[in-house]
Amino acid sequence: MMSDMPGQVLTYRYRLCPSKVQHAKLQAAVDHTRDLMNAALDERIGAYRKRGKSLTFYDQCKGLTELRSSDSFTTYSVVMQRWALKKIDHAFKAFFRRVKAGQTPGFPRFKGRDRIRAFGFADKAGWRVRGQHLIMKGIGAIRLSVHRALPGPPLTCVVRRYGKRWFACLTVRVPNAEAHNGPSVGLDMGVKHLATLSTGETIPNRRSGDRCRAAVRRAQRALARCKRGSKRRAKVKARLARLREREANARATHLHQVTADLTRHFSTIVLEDLKLSNMTRSAKGTVEEPGTNVRQKAGLNRSLTDTALGRFKELLTYKAERAGGKVITVDPKHTSQTCSACGAVDATSRRTRDQFTCRSCGHIGCADHNAAINIARRGGVLVPGGDNVGRWAERRLGKLV
Fold first, then answer.
1. Phi and psi dihedrals of 380, rounded to 5?
2. Are strands 193-197 and 184-189 parallel, antiparallel or unpaired?
3. What domain range is 293 assigned to?
């Protein structure tokens, strides 16, 4: 339905401001969605065990039509209830895809009260945005904190709870900008710096996880001492969730600011096609063949996940397309071992983490900057030398430290 239209589908998140009565109604809608998902999962399992038949999304939609003859199922919109069935359908499709690919499948599980925190509408029926309010069937009109205007009419809606707060996630189709002829750049992503530009500038790594680690550990120890089912455990669990949320928000804010600045100025951005799942693989090994440097590798994995290089690449890609630019990925093989001056490949050229020393031509420079230049050249990008592009990037990105 949406793929025939030009542009991108983006999600805008707005804070909901419900009263106590509306808060209870929102939670009741979440509970209804969870019960429906568990019932749909149970129906699929039972149908396969008894008759050897795999139910589809459309089969279960027909069953939902029969259930809606009861008044208890007509309180909410049928679109909201189909959203729950669609989530189960996606879970089974993902399960069979992983089985076919030989991966660890992970069969869909029944969800407890704390495992489902959202309900949604897959199309425009059953809800609407009118002014500063979100109106939903069975719930009513809830005030919406519209901190920025929607660029177009909303297509779908998902209401999600974060702790005690509620948010509405509205998807909107926005057009892409016309292609612009800005400068090009290569980026070397890393842990010490989030990225190093081929122009010589570095983008700092905020390390949000390190900043929150002490508070998170204290909350985790307090949670371990709590008795299960107690009120204190619920409070400590909410505090830990809030700390994790603040950590994620700080990381996301920094990545959004950096990627927005890069895509506004550079028309072509070249990145390495890193296999992050392989980079963050554990070094523990097996009982027969135990790994080496396990603690060091665990610390590196923690730093890589804290940096969120995959999220950085994802944001760069869609923001560049929206701004009329493009992102090119290249093979990362030997980018850090190749001399950007003479092209010689030598594994011993990086004797230290920060310095690159070429034994063929004697070139000495920053290792990350050297790699960024090689990445830019592999993407067919001309590397500027000493022009105002670097000074512009240093002035703009310096504000994000």
1. 75, 30
2. antiparallel
3. 184-205+248-400
Contact call for residues 341 and 363 (beta carbons, < 8 A) = yes
Position 2 in a domain: no
258 with 395, same domain: the answer is yes
The answer to whether the CB of 370 falls within 8 A of the CB of 183 is no
How crowded is the C-beta side of 323, counted as CA atoms within 13 Å? 22
**Residues 249/165, Cβ–Cβ less than 8 Å:** no
**Phi-psi category of 307—alpha, beta or left, where left has phi over 0 and alpha has psi -120 to 50?**
alpha
Q: Which residue has the tokens 């027969």?
A: 288
Residue 394 maps to which CATH number? 3.30.420
Hey, how many other C-beta atoms are within 10 angstroms of the C-beta on 338?
Answer: 23
The answer to whether residue 345 is domain-embedded is: yes
**Residue 213 covered by a domain:** no
User: What tokens does 310 get?
Assistant: 């995959």
pLDDT of residue 400: 44
pLDDT in tens, 219-245: 999 999 999 999 999 999 999 999 999
For 16, list phi and psi in degrees, rounded to 5. -95, 145
Residues 170 and 188 in one domain: no
**What are 70-105's pLDDT values in tens digits?**
877 899 999 999 999 999 999 999 999 999 999 888
Give the span between the Cα atoms of 222 and 206, in whole angstroms.
Answer: 27
**Integer Cα distance of 239 and 25 in angstroms:** 24
CA distances from 160 to 87, 120, 143, 341, 373 (A): 14, 8, 15, 52, 43
Residue 113 lies in a domain: yes
Find where tokens 């850090």 sit. Answer: 336
Phi, psi of 194 (to 5 degrees): -55, -45
Domain count for the chain: 2
- The residue ranges of the chain whose pLDDT is under 50 are 1-4, 385-397, 400-401
pLDDT given at position 3 = 41
* Residues 170 and 285 reside in one and the same domain: no
The token pair at 21 is 């009565």
pLDDT score for 380: 85
Cα dihedral across residues 84, 88, 94, 97: positive or negative: negative
pLDDT at 250: 93
DSSP state of 77: -
Task: Indicate if 39 and 168 belong to the same structural domain.
Answer: yes
